Task: structure prediction
Amino acid sequence: MHDEQPVEGEYQAPAVPAAPGAPGKKAGRRAGGVGTIAAGLGVLALKFKALLAILLNFKFVLIGAKLFAVSWTFILSLLFYVAVFGWRIGVVLVLLIAAHELGHYFAYRAYGLPVRAPVFVPFLGAYTAGAIAPDLEADAYIALAGPLTGFVLAGVCFALGSATNDRFWLACADIGAFLNLFNMLPVLPFDGGRVIGAIWPPLWIAGVVLFVAAAFWLGVPIIFVLLIALLGLPAMIAALRGHADPRAAAMTNAARTRVGIWYLATVIGLMYIVGQSHGGLTNPGAL
Result:
């Protein structure tokens, strides 16, 4: 997130340049017995030399090493959520946020755009910074990748909860689907706001109304409402003044229709999981 931009509903931070890939880690095997360690390693190296050479050429090895590097912000976020919600739900929240951000991350990679690994911001969420997409349709799909990943993960949790009647998995599905559904609100800086911006920016006005109503209904602290409004305000003011994104000229009606269908399908899917999982939690016999 060329100029870079962050992608995350809960938080946006100044963009940063793409970082070089971190080296991958080789898995080692230890032979039993002190006298056979060197010989065992030598045999394994010879036997799997070709396989290791192939694996180390794949980019996912480097990507994996970079993505799973533990940072102090990740640990601080984890400690915060565990302290507030308990260790099980706290871990789930961190993993849900990470999955959402990884959706954005790999979408950037799929479009061949430079991108940094997701960064956690304690108490506010996380963000993924990558280069600006060449067109608004690609930008919309990158924004949708996070909620779509969250939808799939919530669906898996719901399936597990339904099959086992385990309220924990139903709660995971409920939380995951709800967080991503909230992120689909059609107002900046949420992912839904970027998607709607690719379709028709004036719809942001309706998004503001929905956001304020949702924040009031959910009892969101006013400080977070003001922070989110502050992050999204500059782009909305520019749009209202007629400063259109230059990429908008290349958006055809067919492209807007495609993006709109994906947006509605994601929202409907998330709403379905929220309804079903929440219903299973309040009325277990309904499953």
Observations:
- The CA atoms of residues 161 and 170 lie 5 Å apart.
